[in-house]
């Protein structure tokens, strides 16, 4: 399991990269109900209405700890 500091740095790196329009929270196939609930995309422009959850997710019941992670949403940029 990664620490809150690791995830915060990861999110900041995605923001600072200047390419992503948001983040997607990815969870394993066998994730707990809390992680499944928060899985999906979160746009930076919509944060006031739909804040990006902090990882690790509070209430995660995975025995090994929360395994959710951020990935960038790159819908405005591509090859």
Short summary of the structure?
It contains two helices and three strands. With 79 residues, it is of the alpha+beta class.
Could you name the key traits of this structure?
single chain; 79 residues; alpha+beta
Describe the structure.
With 79 residues, the protein is of the alpha+beta class. It has one domain. Helix content is 24%, strand content 18%. The chain is built from two helices and three strands. The chain has helices at residues 4-16, 33-38; strands at 22-26, 40-43, 69-73. It has a three-stranded antiparallel β-sheet, covered by helices on one side. The radius of gyration is 13 Å and the shape is globular.
The rounded distance between the terminal residues' Cα atoms is 33 Å
- Bin the helical content: 10-25%
| Total DSSP E strands | 3
The structure class reads alpha+beta
Please state roughly what percent of the residues sit in beta strands, choosing from under 5%, 5-15%, 15-25%, 25-35%, 35-45% or over 45%. Answer: 15-25%
Query: Strand sequence of the main sheet, in spatial order?
Result: 2-1-3
In sequence order, what are the helices and strands, one letter per element?
HEHEE
Average of per-residue pLDDT values: 93
The global form is globular
What is the radius of gyration computed over CA atoms, rounded to a whole number of angstroms?
A: 13 Å
How many helices? The count is 2
């Amino acid at each position: 399991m990664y620490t809150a500091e690791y995830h915060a740095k990861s999110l900041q790196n995605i923001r600072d990269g200047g390419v992503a329009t948001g983040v997607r929270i990815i969870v394993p196939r066998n994730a707990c109900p809390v992680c499944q609930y928060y899985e999906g995309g979160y746009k930076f422009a919509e944060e006031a209405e739909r804040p990006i959850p902090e990882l690790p997710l509070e209430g995660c019941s995975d025995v090994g700890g929360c395994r959710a992670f951020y990935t960038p949403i790159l819908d405005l940029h591509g090859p």
